[in-house]
Design a protein that fits this description.
4 strands, Alpha-Beta Plaits, Ribonuclease E inhibitor RraB
Amino acid sequence: MSVVEKLMDGAVADIDVLRSLDGQGDVFTLARDVDFLLRAPNREKAELVAQLINEYQYGAATPLHDENGDSVQVVINMPVTQNVILSVSGFMTCLAAIYGLEFDGWGCVAQSRT
């Protein structure tokens, strides 16, 4: 699958998540910790990408090594308005493609003003 196809598929998936959050009464403009997951082929790749993300302050990245394999968890405190989350999600898709990882999506807890 090409990067453009991954970006288009990702945008559809991102909008599905936004619809789910909207159904929970989310206020998209409120900042919250958003969790992005990049699956890595091995420990070394996970650690390399986590180091790059942290060094350039794209987010707070942690390499994970467990029974599910190797991955990188990236946490960014941000709002999830459509233009913002699709841009960051797209960036993670591109970063994963460049380094041979698989972007496995994002998630967060719905935020409300109450």
